[in-house]
Write the C-alpha cells for this entry.
Amino acid sequence: MDERTGDQDVSLRERLAAGGFAVTAEISPPRGASTQPIAKTAAHLKGWVDAVNVTDNQGSNVRLASWAGSLALLNAGLEPVMQMTCRDRNRIALQSDLLGASALGIRNILVMTGDHPKFGDHPEAKPVFDLDSVQLLWALRTMRDQHVLLSGRKLDPAPDCFLGAVENPFAPPVEFRADRLGKKVAAGAQFVQTQFVFDVPAFARWMAQVRDLGLTENCAILAGVGAARSVKALDYMQSHVPGVEVPDHVFQRLRSVPPGHQANEGIKLAAEIVQQVAEIAGVAGVHLLVAGNEQAVPEILQHAGTPVNDGR
Amino acid sequence: MTAPSPVPVHPRLGARAAYRLQQVLRPNPAYRWLAARIEGQRPARALFTSAERQIKQTAFGCRMCGQCALPVTGYVCPMGCPKELRNGPCGGVGADGSCEVYPDRRCVWVDAYDRAAAAQRTGDLRLLHRPADHRRWGQSSWLNYWQGRDEDLWTSEPGTRT
C-alpha cells in the first residue's frame, strides 16, 4: 500500500508551517473504560494522516475522555488533536485540562462550543457554557504566551499548544461566518477545521471572504470532508446533526447507484470534494469526518490522489 | 440558585429606538452620582433594579446577567442563546435561521446580525467579549454601566488581541 505520510516525526504544526497539504481525520472514543478500540482504529489511519481528532463527548453523548483517547493515540504512534468543548466544564476545569494535556504531550487542542446537552444521552444535564469558544481560545493562548491563567495567576511552566477552532461556513448568518472566524483567529486560533463541505461553490465564497480578511496568513484552513455510506446516513446527517445541510445533488448522486454501491459512491464523491477544495486558494488541507468509518480514509486519499506535500 | 434556562427572545423594541435609548443612557457625571446614591441605599437599589428588570424583560427578554452586551449586539440579548454565547452564533443554526435548541425560534445572532446590518453596525459584532462574571447575576446593569464597571466587557476595537 502506498502510504501518504512517510515521515511521522513532522508534526501537524510543522507540516502547516511548511505550507504542506495536511490531512486530519477524526475518531470518537468508545463508550467504555478501555482505550483498546482506539489503538485498533489508529492502525487504519497510521501513515495516512498528519493528526487525528479525538472528540469530546460528541453529540453530548458520554464517551471516554478526549484526553485519555488522545494519550492512547500518542501511544499508538499517531498525533492527536484533542477536542475541547465548552459544554461540560467551567473555566477552572478547562484551564486545568489544558495543563494536563500539555503535560502528557498532547499539543493540538481543538476548541469548540459543543452541542447542547439536549441532543445527547443526558438531555437533563446542566449545560455549562461558562466560556464560549472565542473566550476559551483567548484563555488558552494567554496561558501559553503570557504564562498566566484567566485569574492572572502565574503558570510555571506554561503549556505548549497548537490551537484550533471550527467554523460552519454554511450556517446563517452566512455573511457573518468569515468575521466569526476572524474573531477566533484574533483570539488565538492557528488552524481551523470546517463543518462538512458538500456545497463547494458556497465554501469557495466563504474562503474568498476569509482571504479578504487576511485570515489565511495566520490560520490554516482545513476543509471538512465526509464520506456518507448510504442515503440513510445522509438522511441522518441532515436531520440529526445540527448545522449540516446536505444539498439535493448529493442525495441524487447516492440514490443513482444501488444500495450495495452507495458506500463506494460516497467515497468517490468525498475524493472529488477533496480535489476541488484543494484547488481553492488558502486551503491548507482537509479534515476527513469519517468517525466510525476510518477504513474509508485510505480509499478517499487514494481516489483523490492527495496533493503532494512539498513540505515533506 | 440558577436563573431560568435561556430562551431566544426577539426584542419588542425596534433597533432604531434602542440605539436612540443608548444615547439617553450613556454614562455622564450626573448618572454616576445618581448611581452612587442609589447603590448606597438598599431599598432604592432594589426598586431601581426591579424597574430595570421590568423594562428590559419586556423590551429584550432580559435575564439580568448584570453585564449588558445589548449596545453591541444589535440590541438582541445574547444571554437568550441556550449556550449564552456572547461572541456570535454557534455552528448549529438551522438553514432557516432557527435556533438548534428551540427550532421554532430564531437564533439570537441571526436576529442580531439583521438588526445590526440595518443600522450599519455590523462592525460591533466583531468585538471580542470577555468571559461573563457570574457574580453579577441579578444586579442592575445600568448601575454597573454608569459606575464604569462595564468598560472591560469587550475589546475596544474589532479583533483587538489583548
Summary: The first strand of chain A starts at residue 22 and ends at 27.
